[in-house]
Amino acid sequence: MNSREGSMRLQLFTRKRMAVLLTLPLAAGAWLAGLPSQASATGASTPAAVLGYLHQISGNHVISGVHNKEPLSNPSQYTAQAHSLTGKWPGLWGGELGFTATDVANRQTMINQAKTEWANGSLVNLTWHMCRPDVATCDFQSGPDPINGSHLSDSEWSQLITDGSALNTDYKRKLDTAVPYFQQLKDAGVPVLFRPQHEMNQGWAWWGGRPGANGSAKLFQITHDYLESKGLNNIIWVWNVKDIDGGASSVSDYYPGDAYVDVASLDPWQHGWPSTEWYQAIQNVAHGKPISLAEVGTVPSPSQLASQPQWTWFMIWADYLTSSNSPAGLQATFNSSRVLSQGQFTVPGGGTTPPTGGSHTGAITGVGGKCVDVAGGSSTNGTAVQLYDCNNSTAQTWTVGTDGTIRALGKCLDVTGQGTANGTKIQLWDCNGSGAQQWQAQTNGQLKNPQSGRYLDDPGGSTTNSTRLQIWDSNTNPWQIWHLPA
C-alpha cells in the first residue's frame, strides 16, 4: 500500500467509525428511504449470504467495482485512483492471481489487500490470467495470449480434460498453487467472487473458444470440482463470456451448467454497453441467477444502468478508469442513487439468527428482498404461505418465538400434513406444538424444520409474487437464506 493510499484509508477508517456511532440498528437487509442501510466493516460471511444480497439488489441497485491488475505488489492502485476521482471507494475490489514470476511471488500481498478490502466493506473478486498448464510462469504474450505459442492443440486439449493425463495433472498442480490463498480467505470469512477462464467464448486465451460439452465449459467444471474437493466452500463461481458479434445465440454452448455457476457475467468490450440481445442472452442462460458486468472499459451511465436493471455489479478494468473515462462521467455514475459503493451497503453476515432476550416481531425477507406472506391475509387453516412484495401488512408480520414457532395472524408456520418429503408445501395452521411447526434458525441464514430435517425453501429461487414456499434438502442456493426480524 503506498503512502497516499494509506492516508486515504486512515481517513476512511475515521469516517466509518463515526458512521457506526451515528447509525441506528437496522434489521439485516432492511431498506431506509429506498436505499440499503449504511455499512460498518464487513464481518465473516458465506457465498449464500452474498448471493442472497445480490438477488435482493437485482433490479434496483448495482455495486460499483474497479479491477486492480498487475503488479501484485501494488494491489489497490486503481481502487485508490477511483477514490481520488469520485470521492468514493468502489463497492467491489477486483484482484488478479498473476502469471509473471514477480507477481506470483507477490500473491500474499494481494491476498492481504483482499482481506483489507472485505473488512472495509467491499466485495472481493479474483481473476486469473493463467499460463498454460505446463508452464510455471509467463508474460502475457507468451502465456494466456495464444499469439506467441501458448495455444493448445486439439490433442493437447483432449489430454487436458482427461483425468490423470500429464496436462490434466499439470493443470491441477497449477490450481494447487492458489489453494493456500483461497484457504486464507476462507479462514478470514471472506467469500470470493472467482472468475476462472474468463471470456471463454473467444479464442484469445488458450482456455477459450471451444464450444460444447468437452470444450471450455468442461475446464470450468474441472476447476470447480477440484477446488471444491480441497474444501474451498467460500468460492462464488462467476461464469463469463464476451459480447462477440453474432455470439449471443451460442452462449449456451459455453455454459457449464447450473450446478457449476453462481453468477453469469458479460464483458461488453465489443460494443461498450450490452445490446438488448446480449442482455437477454445472459439472463436466459443464468436461469434466475444474478448477472453482472464483469469487465467494462467505459463506466455505464446512470441511464444505461436504469435501462438494464438486472446487472448486480460492474467492474471497470484497471487503467481504463482514466484512459476511457472522464472524471465527470465517473462522478455521475458513482453518485447515482442506483449505484452502491463502499459504505452504502451491508452484506449479511451469513444470515440472521433470532436475537436473544425473548421473541421478535417483523418481516421475514428472502430472495429478491421479497417477504414471507400469508396469502390474502387469511387466517383460515391451510392458507398458503408464499413470497410476495413487502407491504408492511399483518400478513407479513411474523413473531419468532423462543418456543421454536414462527407465528402470524395468531397461527403458526406449518409444514403441510406434517410431511417430510422434498417439496412439501408450507401453510398457516392452528398452533398445536407439533414438529411440523418447529423452526431452527441456522447461522448461515437457513431455517430448519428438525422433524423433516429439511429447510424452508423458495422453489427455484423464484421472485414471482405468490410463489408458495416449501421444504427442501439443505443447499447453498440463496433461496434458502432468510432474514428474520431483529
Quick structural gist:
This protein is an alpha/beta fold.
Structure description:
By secondary structure, this protein is of the alpha/beta class. The chain folds into two domains: 3-340, Glycosidases (TIM Barrel); 360-480, Trefoil (Acidic Fibroblast Growth Factor, subunit A) (Trefoil), CATH 2.80.10.50. It is 27% helix and 19% strand. The protein has helices at residues 3-22, 47-57, 77-86, 101-105, 107-120, 154-160, 166-187, 216-229, 276-286, 302-307, 320-323, 327-334; strands at 31-32, 35-36, 62-63, 65-67, 92-96, 123-127, 192-195, 235-242, 263-267, 291-296, 311-316, 339-340, 360-362, 371-374, 383-388, 398-400, 406-408, 411-415, 426-429, 440-441, 447-449, 454-457, 467-468, 470-472. An eight-stranded parallel sheet has the order 4-5-6-7-8-9-10-11, sandwiched between helices. A hairpin with a 5-residue loop joins strand 16 and strand 17 (406-408). Helix 6 (154-160) packs across helix 7. The chain is globular and about 70 Å long. The two termini are 38 Å apart. The model is unreliable at 1-40 and 351-356 (pLDDT under 50).
